[in-house]
Specification:
about 20% strand, three-stranded antiparallel sheet, about 350 residues, rod-shaped, alpha+beta, four-stranded antiparallel sheet, 8 helices, about 55% helix, 11 strands
Length: about 350
């Protein structure tokens, strides 16, 4: 019984070892195949990330440019190799640069530029790396700033007068000057160029402050002149309106006066027509009242109209009457006012 078990065990063990050996062999072949496929894939395939471009170089010559992101095929090295180009926008800050303006004033300017690759082949041949591209663009920015600022005065960049400032125009001129070279020689487009900081050398600070004060004085004088002009216009309109109102008032007063005089004349005519003697008597009294004051004294002829009324009044009150045609002196008050104690 024991012998049979040992024989059966000896019979099973060689077969199990053979199976394990076959498993190891298959695993080795599988791992080797995966390695071969991986090596083959890396040799004939390449991937392009999003926002990048791939330049395929065959024996030192560019054969094509791959712009679409994803997996692509190529000939294995050393037949073809891949140069990856970053086509995303990059920001570059230039170091402080001292410049001379048209009016011979020094300024210290720090600028920034945003750029990206437009022609991958030209970029690869002319520059080859992003670091080299930054150096070239920085050099182009400095040259462009020197050339452009030589056409502008300091007031175009630093001024309290908004009409004198031309910052946007200067930035546009700098951008055009840089792109004129970068696009044609390096395959790079500068999409934005702007000023980050503007400072002045110490010797120019006093001049700039004096210039700003002079501009402020000019603004104040202009505002005063505008205020005086507006005040004169307001006064002129007010005087014209006052003259118009006064003219209308005088016209209305003249119209009312004319209507009153016409009504008075009508009343006089009606009164004269109704009782001529009484009308004559009242008109004579009105004439005396307008001629003589309260305490006036007159020397007159007794037969002169309308002064015969005074004599008549004196006679009615018991006063002595002179002969007709003689001169007499009569107090005006006694003639026009009743005696004391009388009605």
């Amino acid at each position: 019984m024991v012998r049979e078990l040992s024989e059966s065990k000896s019979f099973v063990t060689p077969r199990s070892g053979e199976t394990m050996s076959r498993g190891r062999t298959v695993l080795r072949y599988l791992v080797g195949g995966v390695c071969v496929v991986a090596l083959l894939g890396s040799a004939i395939g390449y991937s392009v990330p999003q926002g990048h471009q791939a330049v395929v170089v065959r024996f030192g010559e560019v054969v094509r440019v791959t712009e679409q992101a994803g997996l692509h095929l190529k000939a294995p090295w050393p037949i073809e190799r891949i140069v990856e180009i970053d086509a995303r926008r990059r920001w570059l800050s230039t170091p402080p640069t001292e410049l001379l303006t048209r009016d011979r004033k020094n300024i210290v300017l720090v600028t920034g530029a945003a750029w990206q690759t437009r022609d991958a082949v030209q970029f690869y041949r002319a520059l080859g790396s992003l670091e080299q591209a930054d150096e070239k663009i920085n050099s182009l920015m400095v040259n462009a700033k020197i050339a452009v600022f030589g056409r502008y005065d300091l007031s175009a960049l630093v001024s309290t007068d908004s009409e004198a400032l031309q910052v946007e125009r200067i930035e546009r001129d700098v951008l055009e000057a840089v792109n004129e070279v970068s696009s044609s020689k390096y395959g790079v487009e500068v999409v934005h160029a702007g000023f980050q900081r503007v400072s002045l050398p110490e010797q120019n600070i006093v001049f700039v402050l004096e210039q700003m004060r002079a501009e402020r004085r000019q603004f104040a004088a202009r505002f005063r002149a505008q205020g005086s002009l507006q005040a004169a216009q307001v006064r002129s309109r007010a005087d014209l309106e006052a003259a118009r109102i006064l003219s209308q008032a005088e016209e209305q007063a003249a119209q009312i006066l004319g209507e009153a005089e016409a009504e008075a004349a009508r009343i006089y005519v009606d009164a004269h027509r109704t009782n001529p003697d009484f009308y004559h008597f009242m008109r004579s009294l009105d004439s005396l009242a307008r001629t003589l004051g309260r305490d006036a004294g007159v020397t007159l002829r007794t037969d002169s109209a309308p002064f015969e009324l005074l004599i008549s009044l004196e006679a009615g009150s018991g006063t002595k009457v002179h002969e007709r045609g003689a001169l007499t002196s009569v107090p005006a008050r006694s003639a026009l006012e009743p005696a004391e104690g009388g009605e």
